[in-house]
Design a protein that fits this description.
CATH topology of the largest domain: Umud Fragment, subunit A
Largest sheet: 8 strands, antiparallel
Shape: elongated
Distance between the termini: 51 Å
Radius of gyration: 29 Å
Number of helices: 13
Helix content: 25-40%
Structural class: alpha+beta
Number of domains: 4
Strand content: 15-25%
Number of strands: 25
CATH architecture of the largest domain: Ribbon
């Protein structure tokens, strides 16, 4: 029995259990039994019995909202039968398939009135504990609904998007712009993404999963949107080394083992001997935020550090950080105060064998002229890796195989972003780009035998994509772990659209200047929209 069949079976059991109880309740009250099995008609009768407007039925057809109204409908009917306890509320909702037949066929329990009170009977006393419990449950459900279907707060932990988004910015991420993603791992503790703090154990259960589905949205993911998504290479994690991708750790281990002549274990075994390794489902992988620079069917290429989409110069954010090669007339450099004042970051230590009077600085374009005005500086010119040049000893640049694609962060591609329905031709070269897409993202088995490819046991020379894919890059291009390292982002990894900044804190500032007041409640996409109507 596949997952979807199991899910339909559970829904059917839940539905039938409630209808069996409802039919008995209706017949006791002289209402035709057939009305219990017709959804809208049943709702009309149900609301009449609990003295609520019939038009409330419309809320049962609004995704997300219907969960609250369905729960409220069940709880009110329990109250109408004189069942006021907290356990009755839980049974009427969570245990509905068993509770409603029990309540309906119990000879000692009958429908009383919408309030569950007999004539002259005083209202049921609600203890402070019950009031707090009800309020807490409602608050948790409401917050869960808002975070799942409307918007969720996020924080910017790294400088990969500077200066568009700053470390310490707290943006709200809209779920409804692209359509809220139905939780794929629904059995989880609310408000914990993947781990319970201090206990360091998963905050979710994987024995029950839902297939990928998304509610209707206001728009599709658009080129240059700021997008929050689940880290595609975050399906496997070394718990003691979560600042690095597990796959990079394996590549480093492979390189080191070759250098040392170690061949008594695989790189994967070497990593598992050092760290505790866990796997995570798609919706529990780490959240990243980047700019979507290419959408399905786009052709992407980076030439000498400049991004091109469909052979045209791509949009460059106003505050983008770019690397510049700075040559001093003498062996002098800026002090740390100078670097801070002019918003410059020295990344020279990333490069080997650099002359003493050469530095590589990350800065905004408007800072170049300021830098050129200093007498001690001989020249300032754009910096980029040359083609086929890479300081990395491991094959960390996608598609992680220098045999066919010796790309680097400044000279990358061309590469076409796959779309749903795209036909991928399979050969030794293309398989480097598409292996993970076919095997991990789209859930197929993939084998290579005698130079031939077998997908789900069938020899295949081509593959048709099931999902759309996107390409994400940071605005701080030389300080960003993005698609140039791990490739395509599948549509089922998309969480939402960065919407507005509700708070911004400068952690490096003193107590009286920590709050960046000018960034509060600013729409993240306003600037781009004005420049690109």
């Amino acid at each position: 029995m596949d997952l979807q069949t199991k899910l339909l079976l559970l829904v059917a059991i839940y539905y039938i259990g409630i209808r069996i109880g409802t039919q008995k309740i209706f017949t006791k009250l002289g209402i035709p039994a057939w009305k219990a099995w017709v959804p809208v008609v049943c709702s009309f009768e149900w609301y009449r019995l609990v003295d609520k407007p019939k038009w409330w039925t419309i809320w049962l057809f609004v995704p997300g909202v219907n969960v609250f109204y369905w729960g409220g409908q069940l709880t009110r009917m329990a109250v109408a039968h004189g069942r006021f306890s907290f356990l009755d509320s839980m049974g009427a909702t969570l245990g509905a398939p068993l509770y409603w037949p029990w309540l309906a066929y119990n000879k000692d329990i009958h429908y009383i009135s919408p309030e569950g009170l007999k004539p002259g009977q005083k209202p049921y006393p609600r203890t402070k504990t019950r009031e707090w419990a009800d309020a807490l449950i409602f608050a948790v459900l409401a917050a869960f609904f808002i975070r799942t279907f409307i918007a969720e707060p996020y924080t910017i932990p790294t400088p990969s998007m500077e200066k568009t988004l700053l470390v310490g910015d707290f943006p709200f991420v809209s779920k409804f712009h692209y359509g809220a993603r139905i939780p794929m791992t629904p059995l989880a503790i609310p408000f914990f993404h993947h781990t319970i703090p201090f206990l360091n154990i998963p905050a979710y259960l994987e024995w029950f999963k839902l297939p990928y589905n998304r509610l209707p949205g206001l728009q599709k993911v658009t080129r240059n949107d700021m997008v929050v998504f689940n880290f595609p290479a975050g399906d496997t994690v070394a718990l003691e080394k979560q600042d690095m991708s597990y796959y990079d750790l394996v590549r480093i281990a492979e390189y080191q083992m070759k250098q040392q002549g170690i061949n008594n274990m695989t790189p994967q075994e070497a990593i598992r001997s050092q760290y505790h390794i866990t796997t995570r489902p798609v919706d529990k992988q780490e959240n990243y935020i980047k700019r979507c620079v290419a959408v399905p069917n786009d052709k992407l290429e980076v030439k000498d550090g400049v991004l091109y989409i469909n052979d045209k110069l791509a949009y460059q954010p106003e505050n983008i950080y770019l690397p510049y090669n700075v040559v001093f007339k003498e062996n002098v450099q800026f002090s740390n105060d100078n670097l801070s004042e002019y918003e410059i970051e020295d990344i020279s230590n990333r490069f080997n064998a650099m002359p003493a009077n050469h530095r590589v600085y990350l800065m905004k374009k408007n800072g170049v002229e300021k830098l050129k005005s200093f007498p001690a500086i001989s020249s300032v010119s754009p910096f980029a890796y040359s083609k086929n040049q890479n300081d990395e000893l491991i094959e960390s640049i996608f598609p992680n195989n220098f045999k066919y694609n010796k790309w680097n962060v400044d000279n990358f591609g061309p590469i076409v972003i796959p779309a749903a329905g795209t036909k991928l031709v399979l050969n030794d070269s293309t398989m480097n780009q598409y292996k993970r897409l076919i095997e991990i993202y789209e859930g197929n088995t993939l084998e290579t035998k005698d130079g031939k490819f077998f997908i789900n046991g069938v020899e295949s020379k081509e593959y048709i994509c099931k999902m759309n894919y996107y390409w994400m890059m940071g605005d701080n291009r030389h300080n960003s772990q993005d698609s140039r390292y791990w490739g395509f982002v599948p549509e089922d990894h998309i969480v939402g659209k960065a919407w507005f900044i509700w708070m911004s804190i400068d952690y490096a500032a003193d107590l009286f200047h920590k709050m960046r007041w000018n960034r509060l409640f600013t729409n993240i996409h306003d600037k781009w929209a004005k420049e690109n109507p």
